[in-house]
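4.2 Preliminary Data

To establish feasibility before requesting continued support, the project team ran the inverse folding procedure on a target of 616 residues. The structure was first converted into the token representation described in Section 3, and no sequence information of any kind was made available to the design step. The complete token record follows.
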């Protein structure tokens, strides 16, 4: 089905309002306030479109559109919706603030236990996680932008008091999230002969390059990046010394939480004591992608235009931006290590730190590559090869290909998901895991991002068809009955023959939020000017030349008896030709169609005159 961002967003908003509002008041339900990640995702399903798409604005009741009011009627009237959202956001900030007034970033029920005989401890559930740090950045920026407009539109004193409290708490949480992300960034240095080194060499060499050849190529390709990390990023002295040794390999990115023994970040903001880190100093592909997604919101046009960051936050944002750029460059070079055959094209990807392999990790590396392609000017070859990778992932993930008997992919990528061991969590209880079940939603997100980036007709067409196929799959997975109707995720609907275990949580806010993000990205994609075809431009110009010549010839002929009608027709032709000329560079197809119509009209006039001359 064609992706229709406006209609699909209205459907999602109606489902969210039906699920989360009762008589205009926000209802968290049984699973609310149990995970800061899930709660942030839930609020972003409304706030992200409302702050990114003008037609979905809720911060100015006078501009709220009629169809938006209709789908949100469970949330209140036109004037009540923004006030009720402010109350919900204030509830979120209070619920996820500790007794010491410090913002908390608990993973909650998103954490699982690797030991089936033991439950995750309460202390472990309260651990902060990179998902929450990153999602909080996006949520806080959306909230601050929303408040900046809405506070000038409301006259209710109680709402103004809540706004003042909410703005302070939101700014505080934003700073805490940025500090936590800085303390979760890590560089892991290891020897070529170590277990991680051998895995990385096998991955990069792909059976064609020896370990020595891989090391030599790694040294050349990463020399400048190694120097940049050494000079720019404040790390422990042992890591810096290791990085200086070119015979050592390294990885950079984000651990799953704040790294053990990570130094505190100096800040004047009142975020309270910075908690001890727990995670091992090992980057995770999944959490690195999550961090990159959140950090880029700090320097978006909207953030800069509205001035949402204070002076201290701007300093932290610059520090995060440096890590964002270094990480993108590292993984983009790793993905494209060998020009003849990219390691990324060897699916599935194998991680060095956790010794796992999965199509999900290939998608994670592809996501970072997409980030990098959006940051720099991508070549046609880069885009074409990345499109091929996306198509293969959709096929291997049983999205565009049929499921086989007892297909493991359905369980591993869509139902149970890929379980990541959270290294370091065993210090506080049983070893914990983090399950990733959003393969389809992530693939759709990256495909639409690439589609927005691509300016090649062939690649754009392939990506758009792929995005529509994945969206078909995702739309089929909406919940059809019971709690959460119209939301996600009902895996059984897409794979009716598979044995799907019932999830204990009725609604997957992570998948619902990612689909919402995709609709915003699709909206941005359609707002771009269409891709220009040079061949069509040349044809349109040739038709314009012929039309202008024939029009000039027609204007020299004596006017017929019905001169008024004839004059109107000529003026109409002139208007169309002017319109076609103005569009020929940006929309050559439209200019082509307009000019063809003009040629048809001119031919009709010529035939009518010939008939009159013959006395017919």
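Position-by-position output of the design step:
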């Amino acid at each position: 089905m064609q992706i229709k961002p406006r209609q699909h967003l209205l459907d999602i908003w109606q489902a969210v309002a039906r699920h989360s509002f009762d008589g205009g008041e926000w209802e968290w339900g049984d699973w609310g306030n149990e995970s800061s990640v899930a709660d942030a995702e839930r609020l972003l399903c409304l706030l992200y479109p409302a702050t990114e798409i003008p037609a979905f604005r809720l911060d100015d009741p006078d501009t709220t559109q009629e169809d938006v009011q209709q789908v949100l009627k469970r949330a209140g009237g036109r004037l009540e919706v923004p006030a009720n959202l402010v109350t919900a956001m204030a509830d979120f900030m209070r619920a996820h603030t500790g007794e010491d007034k410090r913002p908390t970033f608990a993973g909650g029920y998103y954490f699982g236990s690797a030991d089936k005989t033991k439950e995750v401890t309460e202390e472990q559930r309260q651990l902060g996680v990179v998902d929450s740090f990153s999602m909080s950045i996006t949520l806080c920026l959306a909230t601050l932008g929303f408040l900046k407009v809405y506070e000038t539109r409301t006259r209710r004193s109680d709402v103004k008091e809540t706004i003042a409290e909410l703005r302070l708490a939101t700014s505080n949480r934003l700073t805490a999230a940025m500090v936590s992300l800085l303390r979760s960034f890590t560089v892991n240095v290891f020897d070529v002969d170590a277990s991680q080194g051998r895995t990385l060499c096998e991955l990069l060499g792909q059976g064609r390059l020896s370990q020595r050849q891989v090391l030599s190529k790694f040294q050349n390709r990463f020399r400048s990046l190694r120097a940049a990390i050494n000079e720019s990023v404040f790390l422990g002295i042992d890591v810096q010394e290791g990085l200086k040794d070119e015979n050592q390999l390294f990885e950079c990115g984000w651990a799953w939480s704040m790294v053990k023994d990570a130094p505190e970040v100096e800040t004047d903001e009142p975020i309270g004591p910075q908690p001890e880190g727990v995670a091992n100093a090992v980057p995770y592909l999944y959490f690195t992608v999550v961090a990159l997604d959140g950090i880029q919101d700090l320097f978006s046009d909207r953030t800069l235009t509205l001035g949402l960051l204070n002076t201290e936050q701007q300093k932290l944002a610059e520090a995060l931006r440096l890590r964002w750029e270094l990480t993108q460059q590292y993984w983009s070079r790793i993905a494209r290590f060998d020009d003849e055959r990219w390691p990324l094209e060897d699916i599935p990807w194998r991680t060095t730190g956790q010794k796992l392999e999965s199509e999900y990790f290939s998608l994670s590396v592809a996501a970072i590559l997409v980030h990098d392609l959006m940051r720099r000017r991508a070549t046609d070859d880069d885009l074409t090869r990345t499109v091929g990778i996306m198509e293969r992932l959709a096929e291997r993930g049983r999205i565009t290909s049929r499921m086989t008997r007892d297909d493991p992919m359905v369980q591993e990528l869509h139902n149970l998901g890929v379980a990541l061991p959270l290294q370091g969590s065993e210090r506080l209880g049983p070893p914990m895991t983090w399950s990733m079940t959003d393969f389809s939603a992530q693939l759709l997100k990256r495909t639409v991002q690439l589609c927005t980036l691509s300016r090649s007709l062939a690649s754009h067409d392939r990506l758009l068809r792929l995005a529509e196929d994945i969206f078909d799959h995702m739309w089929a997975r909406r919940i059809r009955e019971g709690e959460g109707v119209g939301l996600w995720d009902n895996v059984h609907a897409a794979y009716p023959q598979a044995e799907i275990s019932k999830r204990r949580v009725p609604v997957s806010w992570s998948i619902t939020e990612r689909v919402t993000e995709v609709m915003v990205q699709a909206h941005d994609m359609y707002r771009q000017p269409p891709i220009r075809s040079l061949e069509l431009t040349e044809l349109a110009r040739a038709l314009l030349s012929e039309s202008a010549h024939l029009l000039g010839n027609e204007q020299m002929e004596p006017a017929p008896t019905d001169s008024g009608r004839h004059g109107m027709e000529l003026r109409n032709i002139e208007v169309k030709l002017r319109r076609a000329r103005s569009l020929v560079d940006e929309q050559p197809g439209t200019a082509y169609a307009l000019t063809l119509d003009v040629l048809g009209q001119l031919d009709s006039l010529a035939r009518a005159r010939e008939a009159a001359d013959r006395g017919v």
